[in-house]
Structures are given as structure tokens and as C-alpha cells.
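testing teh design pipeline on a random one, pls ignore if ur not involved
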């Protein structure tokens, strides 16, 4: 039977040991074993090993470095299986080593895509204003299965979605303030919310709550865009000037009656 003939601390890496094993054919093999395995298997000089024990030690020797690299990677935050596999691959571990490490981490419940997704969703809800669809996309990017990632919607209560959407939208109002008609402002804000991961239903409800702001904002926006239009077309005269200014403002989403009132006010006595 194979026998352990020497155990030496690895001088290059703390916590690892080189185990010299005399085989039945007279050859000596050396396995690099982590101290956890050394203690768990009660390895010592003179210990005889069965073929099953030797094969298991070989597998552990191959994978234990990848396993401990995985543990270090997990010390910062939870990881998806896909993230872990990519990380270990970048560290140039072999497919066999990676498979061993992934299985060990799964067995110890340290790698669990369901738990990872739930924690990821809770963190995003607590620390960001991202909507469920953006969280869903981020989970897919992390390699989480679609069915698990889809829980981002069910784990994100609608009332919380509305609160988060309102907070996000408050910070985005500067992009339309004094510049956009109500029509354009709604389009811009709706697009921002959709890009942030909110549904059309949530978007419509939150934007609907801004009706008073949008009405007041449209007045100052019309003055701003109207002055721009008048400068743009100042080389034209009479009805041609009026038509070009009207067309410009109409394309910006301003109501026809408001446009006419603005033009009449600015051009009285000049046409």
C-alpha cells in the first residue's frame, strides 16, 4: 500500500504542505496538500493509504488551491457560480481544479445562485434607485439563470418601486426644467425611467404626479424655446417668419394656442 514517508511545510505558500508518498512500484510522488486536509484526514509520516484515499488526496491536491482562491474571492461579497468560474479561469486554474472548487463551495452552501440573487436584489433596493428590470439585467450579466433573475420583480414591492422611481425622477427634473414642453418632458422622463428598469405602469403613475410642475414648466420652456426659434429664423420676415417659428415650436410639443399667444405677444407691431 502507498505510505507517507515525509511531510514538509511549503516554503512558498503558508498553510500548504508537501506530502511525499512511496508507491507500490517503488516510485515516490509528492502532493501539495492544504493544512485543512492534513488535519481532517489525520495525515502523518508512516500512514498507509488505500487506493481510494490516495485518489481522493490527488483530487483534493489538484483543486484545493482553486478552492481557497474562491474563498478569498468570496470574502469581499457573495458571488454567482458564473462569476466564480470566470474568476478562477482568469487565475489560470485548470478545468478540473475549477470543477473541484465549485463543487466544494456548493456543498458548503457558499455558492448558491438563489441566495446570491436574493442578496443582490435586497442590496440594490437598499442602496440604489434602480428598477426591477435593470436589476434583472444585472443578474443575467452575473450569469444567474433567467428564472431566478426574474424574481427581481416579485421581491421588489410595487410601493417601493414607486418610492424609488420618485427619488430617481426628482434628480432628473433638471434635464427638462425650463427647456421642454410637457409633451417632450414626459417623453424624456419616461425614457429615463424605462432605462432605469421601471415598467410603463410605474413610469406613467410617477410622471402623472408631476402634472402641476410640467404645466408651470411649459410656460418658461415656451419662452426659452420661442426666443431660440426667433433668433434662428430672424433673417425671415412676415408670415414666413411666423410659420417657421410656429413649426419649430410645434415640433417641440407646445400647444398651438400657446404658440400663437407667444408669437402675437413678441411680434405685435413688427410684422
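output:
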Amino acid at each position: 500500500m502507498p505510505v507517507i514517508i515525509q511531510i514538509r511545510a511549503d516554503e512558498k505558500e503558508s498553510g500548504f504542505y508537501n506530502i511525499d508518498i512511496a508507491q507500490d512500484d517503488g516510485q515516490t510522488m509528492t502532493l501539495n496538500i492544504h493544512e485543512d486536509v492534513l488535519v481532517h484526514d489525520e495525515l502523518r509520516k508512516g500512514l498507509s493509504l488505500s487506493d481510494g484515499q490516495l485518489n481522493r488526496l490527488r483530487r483534493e491536491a489538484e483543486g484545493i488551491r482553486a478552492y481557497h482562491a474562491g474563498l478569498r474571492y468570496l470574502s469581499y461579497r457573495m458571488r454567482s457560480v458564473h462569476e466564480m468560474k470566470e474568476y478562477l479561469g482568469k487565475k489560470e486554474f485548470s478545468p478540473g481544479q475549477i470543477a473541484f472548487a465549485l463543487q466544494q463551495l456548493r456543498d458548503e452552501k457558499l455558492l448558491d445562485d438563489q441566495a446570491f440573487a436574493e442578496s443582490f436584489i435586497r442590496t440594490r433596493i437598499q442602496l440604489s434607485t434602480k428598477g426591477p428590470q435593470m436589476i434583472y439585467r444585472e443578474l443575467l450579466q452575473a450569469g444567474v439563470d433567467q428564472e431566478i433573475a426574474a424574481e427581481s420583480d416579485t421581491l421588489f414591492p410595487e410601493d417601493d418601486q414607486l418610492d424609488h422611481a420618485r427619488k430617481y425622477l426628482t434628480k432628473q427634473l433638471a434635464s427638462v426644467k425650463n427647456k421642454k414642453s410637457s409633451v417632450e418632458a414626459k417623453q424624456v422622463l419616461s425614457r429615463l425611467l424605462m432605462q432605469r428598469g421601471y415598467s410603463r405602469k410605474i413610469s406613467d403613475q410617477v410622471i402623472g404626479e408631476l402634472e402641476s410642475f410640467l404645466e408651470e414648466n411649459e410656460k418658461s420652456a415656451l419662452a426659452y424655446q420661442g426666443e431660440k426659434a426667433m433668433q434662428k429664423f430672424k433673417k425671415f420676415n412676415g408670415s414666413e417668419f411666423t410659420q417657421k417659428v410656429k413649426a419649430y415650436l410645434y415640433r417641440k410639443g407646445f400647444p398651438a394656442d400657446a404658440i400663437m399667444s407667444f408669437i402675437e405677444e413678441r411680434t405685435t407691431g413688427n410684422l
